[in-house]
Each structure stands twice: as C-alpha cells, then as structure tokens.
Amino acid sequence: MVDPAVRLLGPVGATLAGAELNLGAPGPRSLFARLALSVDETVSADDLVDALWGEAPPRTARSTVYTYASILRKALGDKALIGSRAGYRLALPAETVDVRRFEATFRAARRLWSADDHGAVLAECERARREWGGVPLGGAVGPFVQRERERLDALFLDVQELRCAALVEIGRPADAIADLSELARENPLPERLHEMLMTAQHRSGRTAEALRTYDRVRRALDDELGIDPGRGLREAYELVRSEPDKPSVVPAQLPHGGGAHFTGRARHLRELQAVGPGSVVVIDGPAGVGKTTLAIRFGHLVADRFPDGQLFVDLRGFDTRSGPVAPADALDRMLRALGAEEQPADRAERYRSLLAGRKVLVVLDNAVSADQVRPLLADAPGCLTLVTSRNRLILGGPRVGLNTLSPAESVALLASVLGADQVREDPDAASELADQCGHLPLALRVAAERIGSGAYGLTDMVDELRREEDRLDVLAQDDDELSDVRAVFRLSYRSLDPEQARAFRLLGVHPGTDIDLHEAAALLGVDLGTARDTVAGLVRQHLVQPTGTDRYRLHDLLRIFAAEQDEPEADAAVSRLLACALAAAHAVRAELMPGLGDIVADARCPHPPPTGYDAALTWAADRLPTLAATVRAAADRGHDRYAAQLAATLAVLCYGTSHWVLWLQVIEIGLAAARRTDDPLNIARLCNDAGVAYDFLPGHEDQAIACHEVAAEILAGLDRTDPAVAANLAVAHVMLGRLRGSLELLERDLDSAHEQANPLFEAIAAFNLSIALSARGDSARALEYGRRGAAVLTASGAANRPMFGHASEQVGMSFLQAGHPAEAIGHLEEALAVWRELDNQRGMATAMHSLAEARHRAGRADGVAELLTAALPLADRSRAAAIRALLAEVSGAASPR
Q: pTM (2 decimals)?
C-alpha cells in the first residue's frame, strides 16, 4: 500500500499517488502539521491543545481537536491516523515526511564533514536543499508554528553554510560567493558566515572584495553589539591582507617526460585532461603499473596551462629505509621552490598564500596516506594537484585507477623499446613475453631493456621466463632497485601490518588465478567477515585486485612474490583450501545430478551451494579452471586422497559444461593420485570418465575404448552391489558394446533405482538400456525404455539440461530406428537445442545427423543438407563417414571432400 507524502517545508499538505489530499481549513491542517512533526509517535490531547491555542485554550478545545481529527481521518484513512486514550498518532514511516528527510540528510552531511569527505558533504547538502519548499509550515496556525518555523529556518541556514564550506574545500570558492553574499546580507552579524565569504573571495582572487567584507562586518558588530571581530574573523583578515607578491622563482620540477617510450593510457590521459583547475586528482594502482610515468607525462602535456610553475615531490610513501617524507618537510621543499626565503611556523598557511591566485601544477608522488597529503593540497582555483599512490586515498576529488596494460598495449610497449622490426619478426614470442610479464609496465620495460642491452634475445628471454620460480630473478636489475620488480614489490609488502602480511603470503598459496571469499577464508583460517575485512585492506593497497563481488585475484608476478615468502602455515592452509574446494564441488555436483551418490561421505560445504540446476551450472563453468588448478596443487603437495576425490567429483561439472579437454587434464592428475593411494574405485571411475571424455572428442575412439576396458576390468573385481560400481560397470559395458552383460546389469540397475526411488539412476539406466537395445536392433523395446527414462526425468522435476538432451535424443533415435521418422523430429530438435545451449559439439553432431536423417526419411527436405554440412566438422571419423553418405544420398551427388 502506498503511504501519503507529507509536506511541511513550505505550505502544509499531503499527496497520495501524486494527488493532493484535502486536509481542510487551517485548524485541521495545523493539527496535521503538529502530528507530522512527531510522526509515528502518540501526541497527547493536552499537547495538541497547547500547540494550537497555547495558554488560553477555549472551553471546547478538546472537542474541536476531536472534530479536526475526524476531518483528517476522512482524508488520510483510519490506518494513517490512529486515536487512543493516550492521544493521536500519525502512523506513517518517518521518510514520508520532508522535515524528517531534511534533518536526516543534514545529520549525514555533518558526519561526512567530520570525515573530511567534502564532495559527499556537498551532495548531501544539495539533497537537503531540494527538500526545502519555502516558508515552513505555510498555512498552519498556533503557538507551535512560530517556534518550529524558527528552528527550521536556523537549520536551513546551517545547511546553506555547510554547503558553501564544502564548495570552498573542494576548490570551487567562486561557486559559493553568490550564496554566501546573500546569506551575509540577510544575516549581518554571524561572524562565521562572513569569515567563509572572505575565504571564498580571497581564494577566487577577489582580495579587495574580501577586505571590504571584513570592514563591513567589523562596523556592523561595533554598531549593533559594541564588540570587535572575533579571532577567526581577524585571522581571515590577516591572511587576506598579507597576500604576498608573485614569487620571483617559477619552479619547473617535473622529471624528464621520456615521451619516446610512453605507450597506452590514452583513456587515462583523456580523463586527466578533462579535469579542471582547482581539483585534486588521485592516480592509484599497484606497484610497477606506471602511476608516476602517467603523472609526469600528463604534467608535460599540460605544462603550458600552469605558467606559474610545476612542483614535484616524491613523498617516498613506501620507503622502508628512510620512511615517508613528513608533510612539514615536503612543505619546506615546496616553499623554497616557490621562492620563500624563510620557513614560517605555519608552513601550510604560507604555502596556500603563495599559491592563491596563481596557476601551478603540483605532483605529489608515491603518497602513503591521506594524512600525509592533506597539508600539501593546493587550495587555489587556478592550481591542479596530482597525487599518486599504491593505496586508495579519498581526498574529495576524481580518482584515476591504473591497472595492467592490455595485451596489445603491452606488445606496443615492447616495440617502442626494442623497435617495431624485432617484434614484427616474432610476434608470438612478443605476445608470450607480454603474458609472462603479466602486462605490468615495469616488468615489460625491464625485460625489453635487458633484451636491448644484448644480454638476451627475444626468444631467449621468453625461455628464461617460462619457469615461474626463476621469473622474478630474470626481471631484476642489480644496479637499480627501482627497476627490480621483486624489490619494488618488497617495498609494498614491508608496509603491511603483520596480519595483512600473513594474509598476503597465504593468498599466494592459492593455485588459481581467481580466489573467492570462501576460499580466502579457508586459506586464512577465519570466518567470512574477517576474511572480507582483511582482503579489503590488501585491495586498498593494490596488492589484491577485486574481480567481482567477493572475488579477487593476485597479479601473476605478485602471486609468485607472495609464494616466495616464508610462511609456516602454508601446508595447513592448503589442507583447509582443499577441504573447502572438495565440499563445495561435491555440493554443486549434487545440485547438477541429485541422487548420483557421494564421492566423499563426509563432505560438508562451509557455505550454501548455488541452489537449482542453472545456478549450479553457472558456478561450475565459472569455477572449473580454479578447481582444476586445485587438483594439480593437491597432487603437487602430496595430498593424493584429495586430488583423486576432487578429480572424480569434477566429472559431473565438466560433463555438464562440456569441458572435455580440461576434464582429461583433471583425470590424468587424479588417476595418478588414485594409483599412488591404491584407490581402485576412483581409478575405475576416472578411467570410465576418461572414456566418456574421449568419446566426446572427434578422432579419439580408440582411447575411449581402452579407458572403458581398464575400468571394466577393475570394476569386475569390486563389490557389484555398490551402486557406484554397478553404474560404472554398466557404462563401461555399453561403451564397449558388450550388450549381453550390459543388459543384465542395466536391468538390475533399473529395478534397484526404482525401488530406491532414485529418479536420476532410474533414468540413466533406462537410457542406457535403450542404447543397448537399439544396438541389438530391438527398436520397439528401445523406444519403450527411452520413453520411460524421459517420463521419469520429467516427473522428477529435475532441471538437468544434459540429461534432458540425452532423453530427447534417445527417444528421437528410438522412434527413428523403429521406423517412425516424423515422430522423431520434435525430440531430436529439442536435443539439438540443448546441445547448442551447452556448446556440446559431439552432441550437436549426433543430433544434427539424426535430425537430418529423420527429416529426410519423413520426406521433409527443408534444411537437411545444411544440417549435414554443419555437422561434418564436429563429427568423429565413423559418424563423419555416415554423414557424407547421407549427404550424397540427399543431394544425389558425390560426397564432399
């Protein structure tokens, strides 16, 4: 239900769904205003009488209040205005009343002012001003009106003052002058208002006006109150009056621009060039990403906009030997550069005075914190301050975030240093070198310079960098620490507190390129909230990059550096990670194929798995590369049990997402681990999995058969009453064409699954029976079992897309082989749609071939040749031959080559 919107900051009123409500004459309207000021609170009858009539109410006051309430109830409804013995209550949410929104917004603005977030202060004050609609409580009467109106007017004045103060602080003093001048005329005595006006005038280069403002308020204070200006106003006057002459020195401190090899960052340069004077811009990003280079390049490009000079200070924010430059020391340097002959006690005030009215570019490089920078900000409308930092700093101005270069930009940087011809001769090597350097500008420049010095050829450098454990050694410069990638990373690492440093080291143990929050929590051995806070600290220092909600990654070179650091908890952290990964994958496997049975009996997922088939499939497609890397890490670190179990668990995930090549890589690692731990069931499972994966890759029929034979031999010696053993053995028999043995096993599986009310196993057994019977030429029974499997799957409500694909395909094939091609067409079209959705190329080839045959046999020639032509490149050798034969039959011509 929509609540009325209440208006008190202007004429009193209320609207419902945009329509004005009839609140009646001034009497009931005034009662409404008093209740709205205490919205959702009960106001006693005595308080209401006092608000409307004060100390001399009429004898009929209480009955009049009752009459007014009745009028309002008709306009608002019984649920909005509630009467009781205690009084009356306007039962509306506070946010429906403009006064409450106005007050809440102003409170938020004051909190932000305390946090020095002046840009946000301005935004909140603008929101508060938009609530104001004129003289408050217009149309209301009674003693309470004047008291409340005075309070709200004073509050609005506070909002206007705070807004103007924010404008001055963010470098827009000229925008504040008009409002401050009007406020000063309407309020000639408040000293803070005139002090702000003088500051804004002075910072806008209107010094004479600032002095006249002081003279005017000084006389008003003397005439009206008989007092002198207070301390704040006198200090503002002294600052304006002592504005110095233009310095004799024009600083030009920007380091050499080095434009010849500057590559990429065109978008960032455009962002910087769009920033007007009077701003503070923060350029942040990880170590070695080129923040200083960008700032210097931009400074040289716009130097003509700042004829009064360019200041540059390296604040050494991450220098662990001498420590960061103190603000006072930085001010001393800049004051000397501006021509100041002596260093006053209040350096910051002197610095701002020297910059007032001038156009100077200030570059504050390598800052560590906002506190280090704030005293150095050029608070003048003609000046621009650039701050570079490895940390994310909030200074109230625009932020330009730098990351690594794109692959094309990385190769262009190599070409600019090495020469275009050398890169053009071997573009593949150049591209691989860019990847090995993680597209980090510092690493690219070091590699290119070492090649250019003759120490390495391009391909030699690529070969050297292929070994991750040697990569940072190759990217080191013995005589230049600032050009040594490891040394640059070390500066950031040493600035971390102990808990952050531990977290950085443990995240470096993660084997994948993508880390989700649950994996981070497992590595750190903490809860999710603590993990999120800890990783957020590393994000602020650009040692970890966020890639999505609760998703992170370490730059490749930073990951190598983190893994180099001695971490006694590394092995325990890996064990926690493996348990987390196995449990999560196991839970997703159960979502994708419920009822399939457990790989791990005691797997407990530490976080809720994705709910529903589609969400689970999306999670699987997203996390599979990381899970595959986790299998490898488990094997490399001697956790063979985890490696085998996780590899077997990932079968359903790989199958559902059609990751055949990745699946085979996982199987190879898992098989070796299962053999080392003498785990026959998982050896058989993984051999069967390998057979299925090979069967989906064209041209690998022999490998598929060999894998199923190994699986069948092992499974024959295991307990066949185990559902996992029986199901795997049946699959092996079907794949190997051992129809008699497979029929017996599958019939037993079908009965057992039906008795256990396991629709997934029942459907699988029915489909495998249909396949086996089709191979024997028993089309009628094949169709019967195909329909049964489809019916069981549909009745179960499962959303398993691959199973539906198989169901549709098998029913269609059964119809086709039973001599009913027209009835097969719809089922095969459904199957093709599923395989296209899942990008299952083998399934697409089979379905297109069968669909083409069904259409051809049913006398529907439309699209048959197109289907067969599209299926050819996706098919294995035997099916390709059948496709060519059918295509020749359809076209009446020779088969295509």
A: 0.56
